[in-house]
Amino acid sequence: MFTRGYGAGPVHLLVVLGCFALTAVSVDLLAAEPRTGLVLVWFAAAVVAHDAALFPLYSLADRALTAATRGGRRALNHVRIPLLASGLLLLLFFPGIVRQGTATHLAATGQDQQPYLGRWLLLSATFAGISALVYGIRLLLGRSGEEQRCAS
Known about the structure:
This is Lipoprotein. Keywords: Membrane, Transmembrane, Transmembrane helix. The chain crosses the membrane at residues 12-32, 38-60, 81-98, 118-141. The protein is built from six helices and no strands. It is mostly helical. The chain has a domain at 72-152. Helix 4 packs antiparallel against helix 6. The longest helix is centred in the last third of the chain and has 37 residues, at 115-151. The N and C termini lie far apart (48 Å). The model has no long low-confidence stretch (mean pLDDT 87).
């Protein structure tokens, strides 16, 4: 009866209420900060940049990838996941990769930013390699299963 009226189970409602509580605590902590205006401007700019530029770009890229793999639907997520992981790491480490704030980084850590690009490329290649390996194993297991069905 609850699920019919609410549209989901009670656990879903508890999780949503927990998210609202976490948001309220975050807003309360943010309101106490003297530079709240700067944070809000940054957040609004990030939302606009994502919704106006990034979302259409990666939606278009995903549609192109889906169209390119019509015959190989099994391969789609083996391309999506490493690209997503690589893109998120690029977003996370972009200031280090382009060496933004070199003096501050050096003063804070005692290290330069030179290894960021190489490490990001190495991690991206590792993601792609692991995904290709898993895809190859899935293909081999799928073929051996088909061969066993055909033999019996």
